[in-house]
Design a protein that fits this description.
The structure is a homodimer. By secondary structure, the first copy, chain A, is mainly alpha-helical. Chain A contains six helices and two strands, in the order ααααββαα. In chain A, a hairpin with a 5-residue loop joins strand 1 and strand 2. The radius of gyration of chain A is 18 Å and the shape is globular. The interface between A and B is large, with 52 and 51 residues. Chain B binds a DNA duplex through helix 4.
Chain lengths: 124, 124
Amino acid sequence: MAKQAVSGSRPVRGSRTGRPIMALLDLLGRRWCLRILWELRDEPLTSRALRTACDEASPTVLQTRLSELREAGFVELGEGGGYGLTPLGRELCKTFMPLHRFAERWRSSPSPRLRGEGEPPRRR
Amino acid sequence: MAKQAVSGSRPVRGSRTGRPIMALLDLLGRRWCLRILWELRDEPLTSRALRTACDEASPTVLQTRLSELREAGFVELGEGGGYGLTPLGRELCKTFMPLHRFAERWRSSPSPRLRGEGEPPRRR
DNA sequence: CGTCGTGCTACAGTAAATGTAGCAAGGAGA
DNA sequence: TCTCCTTGCTACATTTACTGTAGCACGACG
């Protein structure tokens, strides 16, 4: 895969297919990416505060993700420091905000596989 | 980090915090996870068809993700073969379906950072 | 029987994340 | 000015995750 010298990110997978949804899914599917957007959802955070909010994730990967998110136009660095969502980023955040409600229902849903019983008898 | 012998998945990050949203964000943030859900959005696919749809991703990681998604109760293996979404998975898929429309607007949004001009003058 | 298509796994190589430490620059206070 | 603290950000060795290729066991055809 051809690499690009842009700060801290490779070309988003699927960006060549011309289907922006693929590019978006790949970008959002990188580690800590969704979490970062989630933590910034209602107020800007300094890089250190964000690190704390993200369960002390390593600054290396956070910095990488922040660069990518800034390139994508979802996150920006405020004048006085601190990362915040751009209008576009805020919009994105709103799109997957229903996940919160879904997550609550998910936990309380009857899901025997989560109790670690291994696989039920398979089909063959 | 302690490992666990459950089929192809470690404990979801953030699952100890008791906040299901964290667990969900971590699960969905793993590579190819969102893509898999996306590709299964309207019809079940065989493992091979899914691999083709996912741009020939390696079967190792696909199999791992499929196990995790099955544990989570989002995906199931049909009786005659082929992976499909469970009702819960279909619901999850619906929650982030608006991403499609967002992705379209995202591409056509004025985003100078995507053209690789490097960083604009920073704050200090 | 042989051939095909399932789901699934092994394994070596490579890419990415972790964890720890530390940098340069700005601001506040003495 | 000289500390002291916080900001964003980076280096680097270790560990973990993913890739790419090959191949398995099973079942359904013919």
